[in-house]
Amino acid sequence: MSDGRPKGARGERPVAFTTVSDLPIERLYTEAELGPSFAPDAKLGRPGEFPYTRGIHPTMYRGRLWTMRQFAGFGSAEDTNARFRYLLEHGQTGLSTAFDLPTLMGRDSDDALARGEVGREGVAIDTLADMELLFGGIPLDRVSTSMTINAPAAVLFCMYLAVAEKQGVSFSALNGTLQNDILKEYIAQKEWIYPPRPSMRIITDMMAYCCEHVPKWNTISISGYHIREAGSTAVQELAFTLADGIAYVQAGIDAGLSVDDFAPRLSFFFNSHNDFFEEIAKLRAARRIWAHVMRDRFHAKSERSLMLRFHTQTAGCSLTAQQPLNNIARVTVQALAAVLGGTQSLHTDSYDEALALPSERAVTVALRTQQILAEESGVVNTVDPLGGSYFVEALTDRVERDALAYIERIDEMGGMIAAIERGFPQKEIADASYHYQRQVDRGEKTIVGVNRYAAEDDVKPEILKVGDEVERAQLRRLAAVRAKRDAARLDRDLEALRAAAVSGANLIPAILDCVRGYGSVQEISQALVPAFGTYQEVSVL
Amino acid sequence: MGDARKLRLLVGKVGLDGHDRGAKIIARAFRDAGFEVIYTGLHQTPEQVVATAIQEDVDAVSLSILSGAHNYLFPRVIELLRERGGGDIAVFGGGIVPDEDIPGLVAAGVKAVFTPGVSTEAVVEWVRSNIPLRALG
Questions:
Q1: Whose C-alpha in A169, A311, A320, A408 is 20 to 30 A from the C-alpha of A240?
Q2: Which chain B residues are closer than 8 Å to A116 by Cβ?
Q3: Beta carbons of A116 and B42 less than 8 Å apart
Q4: pLDDT category, A2, cuts 50, 70, 90?
Q5: Secondary element (H or E) of residue A31
Q6: What chain B residue is nearest to A103 in terms of C-alpha separation?
Q7: What is the CATH number of the domain that holds A284?
Q8: Domain range for residue B36?
């Protein structure tokens, strides 16, 4: 061998052939690796048919390309509105909103904990006034909007409804997705307000409200993305996400909803990491497990309940600050895995995201990457081109088997909420993330440009800076709204919300009233604290 | 000092940032290196972190910040430590911090800022060479 290293025992290089998550990979896959029980009809079906392993539509991307949905949000509502309009003009087909940390935590911009964080990682929204600016000039009946918001999701959703009202758009015409996945907050992303059980009530209230009033809205985007970013393996991402999904469906049923009324509006959100085939296997296994869970465990009848629809984002945690242009290659591979895994929508990360919020130039390259895959690469021409590959099917089986074993353990603990309360998924992820970091430190896993092929003369691209003026301007706007609104009306509406929290009435109409009266995210969120309490994590190292 | 006291480090997450992957990894790496580690958990105010640091008599505070609020949070922690008699407690940290912000943080008293791609071994080595045991009264 030209590199002079010793040969492996079987004429192979002396390295471990494993996935990024450490699953062992064989030299060759044949029928033998699939095993005698592999029955294509039962395991794969046809695209658009149970168990949807090969995709949820018979035509897949021949019928319709995936939605190219780039997450955006920074600074003020006006800044983000400008970014939205830019993306719409450049061919993007859906909006995706990033909120700043105070908003995600249900805090107003003038709260002490918000200092230094206003508008930094996303857009700052305090009241309906900000939301009106955010969607100004964008007809809400003609876009689909995804909002990445969880603990205070009901409040932000009501703000969106109120903007629609002001535009004269009926709720039933609204299209979009709320992340609204509180369970993964306790597991991975760590942005919470209330403890898990009352948080589940808000979610089932929202599911019930949407069934009746906003039927095209996707009420929860059950998210593995953040679980993976927190350092999980691919199998853990899949297993914990589906276990979260099981908890939501069970909660909906327990709240008296009929499974086929709400399950079709559940969607999923996965990460696409570097290991190309492992990711494809994960996405194919996800569809197959979910179809079985919904049919066999929850007795869903509607096809739409059985189909796992999902959004994918390329793995932010895989991006390097070193030699940042290399990230374009990583994102391309990850995006291709998402497409071959059958994603319904996709966000491609920008190459500068390990350094700062993405610049306009980097966002454009990321969007162009998707357009090249869709319109130049030819991978969209046929459905599930990897179906039937010995390797891909064997790996799909392996990932499915390992994920089911996790789901079984979580069931034995009493379901995901109980598992979270005892710190189980949190600990599993922390262990996996530490294990991976040690492998990287020892050079057992390669990160190009970091632990191999590092360069001294690394050129850093220009990055986007969010200045302090955003925070000052936001504080002025919030103060102005507070001075102008009808305080007596808001007090009455907040009191009605507190009462609904205690009585068990659906919270959404009461929250909507508070929002219409320009109540703030924090005021409305805090109104539920007397009834619901707050959450404190017991940290597991 | 005659005794063989272990180095005591506080690993802290300040602000609303919930990204604790890095904080947990570095806390474990410090523990595996033989240091005593106190992890604050999430969503701490600078006041809370400083109160814990002083109460626990730590030798250094290691902050993990990925929210972009480093220019406010690092100097604020240092300022509070000085005000409350912990001016000799070293402060260092890591996270997503643009290179051009690092000189300002160092000028504000941050001993070192580790950015993505640094190995845990390198951080542990740096701590061994740069964080002395404080003389505790």
A1: A320
A2: 15, 69, 71-73
A3: no
A4: very low
A5: helix A31-34
A6: B16
A7: 3.20.20.240
A8: 8-130
